[in-house]
Amino acid sequence: xxxxxxxxxxxxRALLALGLLLACGSGAAQPALLVGTAWYPEQWPQxxxxxxxxxxxxxxxxxxxxxxxAWSTMEPREGVxxxxxxxxxxxEAARRHIYVVIGTPTAAPxxxxxxxxxxxxxxxxxxxxxxxxxxxxxxxxxxxxxxxARQIATRLAERYGxxxxxxxxxxxxxxxPPSFDAQTRRQFHDWLRRKYGSIANLNRHWTTxxxxxxxxxxxxxxxxxxxxxxxxxxxxxxxxxxxxxSYIANQSTAIRAHADPxxxxxxxxxxxxxxxxxxxxxxxxxMAAWDEYVPDGHFVWLDQAVQHDLVRGYKNKDFWLxxxxxxxxxxxxVNRALPPYAMRELAWQAVGHGADAVLYWxxxxxxxxxxxxxxxLLGPDGTPVPAYGVVREIAAEMARAAPALAGTxxxxxxxMLQSYDSRWAIDAQRQQADFGVVKEFDxxxxxxxxxxxxxxxxxxxxxxxxxxxxxxxxxxxLSEAExxxxxxxxxxxxxxxxxxxxxxKDAYDALWPQRQPGPLTxxxxxxxxxxxxxxxxxxxxGVLGSGQASIWAEALSAHDPQTQVLLRYGxxxxxxxGKAAIISxxxxxxxxxxxxxxxxxxxMQNVLDDFLxxxxxxxxxPGVSDNVEVCERFGARKRVWILINHGxxxxxxxxxxxAAPVLSGNPAVSTAAVALAAHSIQVLEAPLR
Length: 689
Ligand code: GLA
Ligand code: GLA
Known about the structure:
Structural class: alpha/beta
Number of helices: 18
Bound molecules: alpha-D-galactopyranose
Shape: globular
Radius of gyration: 26 Å
Number of strands: 25
Strand content: 15-25%
């Protein structure tokens, strides 16, 4: 969500801004791009806070996130609240022009709560009940926990919902693990009852005659996350998604009742996390946010770029990077530090893909607690560590670029469909251990991003109008309704490419009797005859080039005279020899294509380049090296290019039109030739013609 601009501030802040304007000649409207940090004032004496905030100010930070683990400080005893410290922390921050995002503290319930109400504790799949001393020890479905969470969220919202210095809310923190307690199980049964109406209906869709699974009543249905009937497994994940969604809604409703609409509500999600459907959950939020970590310290730009696009797709708009690492983390095997230049590339890439804020986790390490080794901006002595200097530089650049980026967002002509149902279904039965759904998604994303330089990652129910090309890698679960939307898109002139394993199963995770791609078989004019897991490569050749398949190969057939075979397998295991690997059918001015094999990267690039050209997708900035990332954000009357050289060699980039440099150089002199030193960044602004 674009951040609030001038005009939404209170008279107090307006006066402050005026004061600053008079004092130093600059206004203090909330910048369009914010840099900040997670700050835990409750861990430090109040006398220290001014110094912390001044150090933040000196580093050009404009926002802190506070409170998300501070329940025991906010409510030291049941019903006894102390917000005086938070009042002061917010006021002290505001005095230094630092905005505040409040995290509701429900990821870390206090000890009085878990000892008085042990029924709120989470139970893991082996039946073990969580104990105090870690975080996330609560059950997401517990009505009592929700009531306690609602109360603390309400108290916070009553107190800070109209505070001009509080710009938003983060609900909980990195939610995810479900609970397997008795209450959750009852709720699962109720959820199934609502969905299926009768047990006979459930039995039919899950094919429970298999292994005598036939149920006489909903209360007989077990609750598992693995080694079960696929229909049950998929429904369990959906139930978990719905339960986390109502968990978030419980707090967002409480906050909205008291909060100024200018305050956003979000939660911080985890990269490719698949414990629940983040697309469904995001409906309860105003804005998506995520926590980006590169735990091994090796920044691979494409691996990170796709995740920003994924998060942007949760709400199909700009988002926040709520946490990222100052140099290193503490939870990997080797917690290598990102090089300073990579920290800068990471931050600018986030902005290039639609982030409107970048926050570092965390400000200063707590003297004790589980994360003593994690990267910070200050050391335990309260003075800067080396990462502070790098963040200061990044924040200064972002402050300079913020006016140019105001009101801009990325946009794309290419969409990739991301389906949790399909991920869950394949993960439950991989058939080839190396068939990672995310890995396969990345294999499609890389060539698309290289060519088009902008890709949207969207859910299967996002409208497809306006996209020239839609790619669905491994859309394993394909409901009747989804198939219809895709068919409509193709018939309206869209170009659709399905990847391997697509259209195998219906919405209940049952096999489609017409084989793959299920309800799209007749539109494709062909189908999958048989799938094969590979442990060696298989040659491929045809009009789209030649190369190799690995991991997975499907033998395809074309039954419609208009369906063309674009690639065939060479000699291999006897089953695949000479069989079709890619088939495609023109439908009016649109087309549908099925790629049945996991292609090597060069061949994948060839194949997708062909579809990109056919769909008339054009690169934002043609002719750049693979190490140069091109991002573009569009406003009503302007475009902003963010060019990032991730490589060790310098490059000169030719822009399609002259643009004014925003970070360095003379902004009055527009240029179309941009020199990019190794590991450097350029931001350029041009009017949109
Ligand atoms: C065993 C079982 C069968 C079936 C096969 C699958 O032989 O008896 O029911 O599960 O394995 O390989
Ligand atoms: C997550 C959490 C933070 C912190 C960081 C450390 O993102 O949200 O509280 O634990 O990890 O990397």
